[in-house]
Write a structure and sequence with these properties.
The structure is a single chain. The protein is built from six helices and eight strands. Among the domains are: about 40 residues, no CATH class; about 80 residues, no CATH class. The strands form three sheets. A four-stranded mixed sheet has the order 3-4-5-8, with helices on one face. Strands 1-2 form a two-stranded antiparallel sheet. A two-stranded parallel sheet has the order 6-7. β3 and β4 form a beta hairpin. It is α/β, with parallel strands linked by helices.
Length: about 220
């Protein structure tokens, strides 16, 4: 990235700044310094989680402890015709170097989501209240909510609320990549809504996430 050497050249007094050869020599001398300053000015933005792309996100992943490469490849996430859940706004495009039937490396947008979830998990205080707050920060703008059932015996259950997620978000959720849970706690299951933007069916509860007859809908297990 070429920096602006003008601030350096403007410091040369009128006695010398009318000499082209001298000015050219000074510019050639200070240009590397101007280039260095320009690069340093861009580093903060280059590694900002909102703006970083490609290899820059990979570096952030090293800092927070989340790799773009999946330990277990995801299947049934590519866009395709005539298959429910993988149509427009549901499946993702297969990249030029991706395997034909499984996703190994996350695209930038989804990797950024995993990084955010990892950062929140790293700073989580271990309470259910904070888990809800972190989830809302992560997904509130997209309309997704979370219902957390803590059984009090080192077992938990997660239920996604809101719209039906796209195939890759759903795979990441069910695969535990977006987890907020204490170490050693087992997740019994991941439920997703059978009807978008509809509470789950349940007895003896009536709130935004759980409703009774004629209002609640069954949850779908993996």
């Amino acid at each position: 990235m070429a920096g602006d050497a003008t601030p350096f050249l403007d410091l040369i007094t009128s006695e010398h700044n009318q000499r082209p050869n001298f000015m050219a020599m000074v510019e050639a001398t200070v240009q590397p310094n101007a280039d260095t300053i320009a690069v340093l000015d861009e580093i903060i933005a280059a590694f900002d989680l909102d703006l970083a792309v490609g290899a820059q996100l990979d570096v952030i992943g090293l800092w927070v402890g989340a790799s773009r490469t999946l330990r277990i490849p995801l299947t049934n996430v590519y866009f395709t015709w005539d298959l429910a859940g993988l149509g427009w706004d549901e499946g993702i495009w297969k990249g030029p170097f991706d395997p034909d039937n499984q996703l190994v490396d996350l695209p930038d947008d989804y990797y950024r989501l995993v990084l955010r979830a990892t950062i929140q998990n790293n700073r989580w205080d271990g309470t259910i209240h904070q888990a809800y707050a972190d989830w809302d920060e992560l997904f509130g703008a997209a309309g997704y909510g979370i219902l957390i059932q803590d059984y009090g015996n080192m077992h938990m259950l997660y239920a996604l609320t809101g719209p039906i997620p796209d195939a890759l978000t759903l795979a990441l959720f069910r695969g535990g990549a977006l987890n907020t849970k204490p170490a050693g706690v087992y997740i019994d299951g991941y439920l997703t809504p059978s009807v978008p933007d509809t509470p789950y069916f349940g007895f003896d509860v009536s709130n935004d996430s759980i409703k009774g007859w004629d209002e609640g809908a069954w949850g779908l297990a993996e």
